[in-house]
Amino acid sequence: MAVDKGLDLIEIVPTADPPVCKIMDFGKYKYELAKKEKLQKKHQHVTLVKEIRFHPNTDTHDFDFKVRHARAFIEEGHKVKATVVFKGREITYQDQGRAILDRFTESLSDVAKLDAPAKMEGRQMITYYVADKAKKKTGESSKQSQEQS
Q1: What is the set of domains in the chain, with CATH numbers?
Q2: Digit-coded pLDDT (tens) for 69-84
Q3: H or E segment at 100?
């Protein structure tokens, strides 16, 4: 029957009794599978880790500038890695580094949540932030209510 129709005979379940077969165009089937996989890859979002670096004596303008960048990264759906780098004798000012990270956490509290608390790795103090979906939804609903009124 498959030869008469110009199609392929494909064995679906060979272990069944009798074996289950299907008459179809195998080339077309493979093409449609490839097309589906390509579409799935297209809709897939890869989360990147973006790094924001500070020093213990980072000034307020630089700090605000970096907060704006971190906010943009989080809104795009990326993770943010905040790093305070201690050079030379700056390692003695770990309390200033922790204060900067605390201020950074407070600045991003409306869009992000702390993923990993601050910890020292060598001469760097590192913490991670991820988008807080609960806060994002409440922010959108409050925007919509303000636009309606």
Answers
A1: 2-42 (3.10.20.80), 49-139 (3.30.110.10)
A2: 999 999 888 899 999 9
A3: helix 94-107
